[in-house]
User: Fold this.
Amino acid sequence: ILDNAEHFSRAHYRPDDRVLVPAPLFHAWGLMSGLIAIFRAGATAHVMRRFKPEPLLDLLESARATVLLAVPTMVGHLARSPSIGSRSLSSLRVVLCAAAPMPLELI
Assistant:
């Protein structure tokens, strides 16, 4: 587990990253690729208790998140949010997605 987190950390995170983690921590994506790898990189983690599109967008803006750790279903909900067009997401460097194939219309 730690070795996987180490390699994921080196490949995806920078020490100055602010990573938003709405993924569940009981799953490898949220815990290993999320928290453990984020801490290993020396980055900052913003963990959400539960995924909801509007609170996630609020936190993306207020925390000036540079990385979003998500699954395709979350990305789909965010893309369909009525407020997505008026949000400032310029700080976002990358959206890391796993757990299922990403639909072409969301890429």
User: Anything to note?
Assistant: The mean pLDDT is 91.
